[in-house]
Amino acid sequence: MAESTPHKPEALSPLAWRWHKLSPRLVPVFAVLTALILSSLFMMLTQLITKGYVDFGEELNKTGTAYNGLIEGSIGLTLSNTLTRSSVEQARIYIGDRETSARDLTRAARTADEIRKNGLDNIVRFGDVLERYTDLTDEQLAELSARLGDLQRIGDATLTALQPVLTDLDALASADRDALLESVKNLSNLSAEQRGALATQLPGAAQISDTDLLKQLQLIGVEGFSRIKSLIAQLELLHASNLTPDAPDARDLAAIGVLDPAKIRDQVAFVGSIQGMAIQPGTLSEQLRIIKTLYDAEPPLLQDSNVSSALQTEFEPMLQNNLVILRPNNQVLIDYTVSPAGIIYAPNKTPDDPSDDQVVDVVYLKLGERALLFSPANLESMLVRAIPFIIAGLAVALAFKAGLFNIGAEGQLYAGGTIAAWVGFSPIFAGLPPLLHLGLVLIAGIFGGMVWGAIPGALKAFTGAHEVINTIMLNFIAILTVDWLIKSTDPIIFLDPASSAPRTPFIAESAHLPSFNTIPVWVYVAAGIVVLALGLWNRRAKIVGNRRAALRPIVYGIITLVGGLFLSWVATRGILHIGFVVMLGAVWFTGWFLDRTTAGFEIRTVGANPDAAKYAGMNVRLNMVLAMAMAGGLAGLAGAIEVAGVQYNMQPGFFGGVGFDAIAVALLARSNPRSMIPAGLLWGALLAGAGLMQTRAAISIDLVKIIQALIIMFVAADAIIRYVWRVPEATAEEKEKTLFSAKGWGG
Q1: DSSP letter at 728?
Q2: Are the C-beta atoms of residues 220 and 162 closer than 8 Å to each other?
Q3: DSSP states of 434-474 as a string?
Q4: CA 23 to CA 27: how far, in whole Å?
Q5: Cis peptide leading into residue 328 (ω within 30°)
Q6: pLDDT digits over 241-253, tens only?
Q7: For residue 745, is pLDDT > 50?
Q8: Domain coordinates of the chain in residue numbers?
Q9: Most confident option among 129-143, 267-281, 618-632, 661-675
Q10: pTM listed for this prediction
Q11: Residue 80: partners with Cβ closer than 8 Å, 6 or more residues away
């Protein structure tokens, strides 16, 4: 019976009805958005805990900076300001008409940075304190900073009371003094005989009670005679300036000693020079460094040795003839032309190698006083990071379709990657043509993963042992076996003896996955033509009756050509390899196998209802083994691609949790092979952009792990998302599509 089209409830408006139909598809997107929002709240909570308050403006700006860094570090897109007159206005005011060199800019910027770090108000206060205590030398301030904590801990009154005893101890020989202090170390009170003996050595203690004298001697013994003597000297210095250890001025003097009195005096003078100029030290520091970069550019954008003169005569013409894009950390990108869009090439790091003469660094589009930037290298890194997540996610999803929870993708990655590495470096396969050798490496990876996946599948099918337990245990076996194979030295099995770190030998160059930027253009043209021809052939019957049916093959052919050329252009560093195409093929094959083949239908049926499948004559055991073997083969393929396209060898701990992250990717994609691509790209983007996010916003890289955990939590418990975003409750059909285990953990 055909499924009926849902009828629009009378109570819903047209807009609400459209949301009712569209929103269920967006649940994973809403999960990501909710995770990002909650992560920003985590940052605010951190500020509340550490500072006791929340500056919402500061936190929103920090969040924006963090997510901007995350986006730029992953897909390479960002907005930046361009250099204008206002970009250096505070620097112009500070420099004024006085003669200033480019070297002076660096010194002034460093001083302004120190003022910003120490706090403008603190520097002003330090200046006042130094004016009040001009008799103190820099050495005395440094000594005070080292001793003030102990002075406050022991106390002014206690140290003052120690002076008579300390004077008598100082008159004794060192050996006698040490013996005296040792003799009272463990006493709880002084006897008359002991007090009499001390009276001859410490005549100044005659007026001190037995209890107080014992405490003073034991304190000197614990702290050390020389240390107490130094502390009393510091206390006398404070008293001479009418200060006590707890006085605010004493704390400021100690802080000055820590920060270097000479530098503080320079900062005080600097603050005095900018008073009344409406200048912020942090902003001034950035602007001074921007001007310095204009001098350091190749060729220089400012040339007059007098910065004041250069700003008056050269700056405006320079802006008219050049585009300068401001980047974080006082970096600039320069296009020595003024155009609405263009390409800025990376500096040639190896002049003797012409291959890097035209390496694209940034593509820009000028938007008023801002510029939209695209860095191909960042996108290239993200795509490379995403490939194993997508393929390993397919491995988890395929097992889900059979009602099996494959937690063994990690071990299957190691099994496939290790066998692929052996085929790559083994002399048995040396000398093979590149196409054959590379094909064998990939097949070996698939085979290794299939074997490792088939084991828990067979145990589940024939013994009923739960696949979750089996795959977890097999993960440990695979990881530790690879560790032993590589680290074994007697005998040497897979270890490269020439390497200082434990790893296999490098695979032969004939086993490398080629980078997109090494593939000739005609290959992309040929690929586009092949896709077009196959599409036209498959739809030939429809095209005869309707020529418009040829439009889809034509579009696919164009996408293949343009996509290949784009990936070739993006591969600026030569790390994006054709494993990306293999990944696309794996996605297509998995979807085709599950939806278009009898075996795929049987696997899905077994996953949905094993009893019904058995009643229909399907071999449930065989399908369980087949599903886990194919899942393992996909994970092994991911391992082989990483070995052949990224690392070119195998190392212990190389995959570092990729197989476990694949479970999250499969959940986010809801086990849909085609949805695995955006889910894997998101996962790769989070990991690729985490480093830049941390650098830009000074936020722990662990924030990305929090985001990932929240995403998975909201995908797994989608009732929360449906409630928050007013998404209708999942229908029975939707629940069936997202089903990943017919039996659940109980087996």
Answers
A1: P
A2: yes
A3: HHHHHHHHHHHHHHHHHHHHHHHHHHHHHH---HHHHHHHH
A4: 7
A5: no
A6: 898 999 999 999 9
A7: no
A8: 104-274, 516-570
A9: 618-632
A10: 0.83
A11: 325, 326, 327, 333, 370, 371, 373
